Amino acid sequence: MRAIIADDHPLYREAAGLRLQRQLHDLEVIEVGRLDELLALAGTEGEPIELILLDLRMPGMQGGQTIETVVEAFPETAVALVSGAAAYEDIKCAIDAGAKGFLPKTLPSKLFAGAIAVILAGGSYLPAETLQMNGKVSANPAIDDIDAGAIPDELTPRQLQILAQLASGATNKEIGRGLGIAEVTVKMHIRQILRKINARNRAEAASIATRAGLI
Amino acid sequence: MRAIIADDHPLYREAAGLRLQRQLHDLEVIEVGRLDELLALAGTEGEPIELILLDLRMPGMQGGQTIETVVEAFPETAVALVSGAAAYEDIKCAIDAGAKGFLPKTLPSKLFAGAIAVILAGGSYLPAETLQMNGKVSANPAIDDIDAGAIPDELTPRQLQILAQLASGATNKEIGRGLGIAEVTVKMHIRQILRKINARNRAEAASIATRAGLI
DNA sequence: ATGAAAACTATCCGAAGGGATAGAGGACCT
DNA sequence: AGGTCCTCTATCCCTTCGGATAGTTTTCAT
Fold it and tell me: Domain B155-211 carries which CATH code?
């Protein structure tokens, strides 16, 4: 059994992959970071792909039409949308386009597990909040971003390593010693990390990394 | 429906409360910090109390006998033990005393949710590791603490406020401005926080706070 | 083979963090 | 009335962080 996690940042992919594999043994998780990579997997031979977790804001995504493209490219597969924060329109649009559900990234694991189970069973999942926001239009329907602490861009392996240590309270000097590189190099990496995950400093970065499951 | 969380530090109570309420709508969570407070709730009128999450190392607790006392005081209620780290004896003792389960504080949310569901359904939950440690005696059975990143001591309300902002990436100056106090005061509070939660710096503190559910 | 990206190093600078010490006011409990 | 705890403030000192700029090397894909 296979599932695809299509999201532009590896931290979330890892976290989501872990959740899935906890729940579904014998699951092969395929991670992709861009829309074209995802579409390239359509029609692949091998075990059937049961599930696609699709980030709303992945490079290449452009709203309803794109979702429809994906749904059509994988006619046998349940496509579930995933996003950090979502406008009502986004959700409606996604369901109209054939998505089987909408999972906020903030979804607690248990609900996540339940939602996945429901979707795999052929149902569809919508967060409870959807009812309250019935028809309500957010200030900026198209881009309801900021994403409350998610990781917007790819982190390199080195950066993931360093981020993990940072979140454990290591200083730059300690990280450098541990990895056998100079402190300045660590600082350089961290500058990039802060930029990419949009954190103001290492404390916020630590929080974001922890929330994303990188412990 | 009501549940009691009996634990000596509020951060964990909050986190556990959130987890429970996410899972069980219409749940009223009662938080207590000491054993006597807990026992004072026995026989209270009102909605039935379905669940008690009981910290092994709460002020007043003294092992198996105490657990038995609690179980007898709440005959209609499922009592589940909670602890940061536990010796085999503790677990065995707790089960013998009538506890319905044992939940490590490090339990991932999903397992936590599953465990709660099992316990509420009348079953009992034991962590898988229990099997491996069958009969093995830890170096210090009574106090097997250190607690791997949990919050060992009470944080004052002010400290919780500050810790939350810290984890959001606020600088001391910003926190001070927001709370209308001087930066030095914030620094003082943070020094206390780092001591109490045993963090080396604010990055680690942010990680710990986030893991504990204080976002 | 050329170019892009990742990784590494260096120096300089101002801002922020972390620790120690010392003191003051208020709330609450006994 | 005294004690304890929380809260707030101040000064001094050194470390760590975060950023800019500039450069080398390696690796990998087109």
Answer: 1.10.10.10
